[in-house]
Write a structure and sequence with these properties.
This protein is an alpha+beta fold. It has helices at residues 2-7, 30-34, 61-70; strands at 11-12, 18-19, 45-47, 52-54. A hairpin with a 5-residue loop joins β1 (11-12) and β2. The chain is globular and about 35 Å long.
Length: 71
């Protein structure tokens, strides 16, 4: 499911803005992961402004896109 989001990136949202999806590997991208509020794996973080927030919903590509469109 997560690969679907990354493969579709950037996704155009209902308001015309673009959502960019990036998949980080905890081992390969350890330095980037340290800078983020990751509490477990897999985590979906949304950057909407200065502070990333953890996505609270169902772990499907469609559910994430629906959540982004509702923001």
């Amino acid at each position: 499911e997560f690969k679907k989001l990354a493969d579709a990136s950037p996704t155009t949202l209902s308001n015309g803005s673009k959502a960019h999806v990036k998949i980080l590997d905890a081992d390969a991208d350890a330095e980037d992961v340290k800078k983020l509020p990751v509490r477990g794996y897999p985590s979906i973080l949304i950057e909407n402004g200065a502070k990333p927030i953890e996505y609270p919903g169902e772990r499907t590509a469609q559910a994430v896109i629906e959540y982004l469109n509702s923001m």
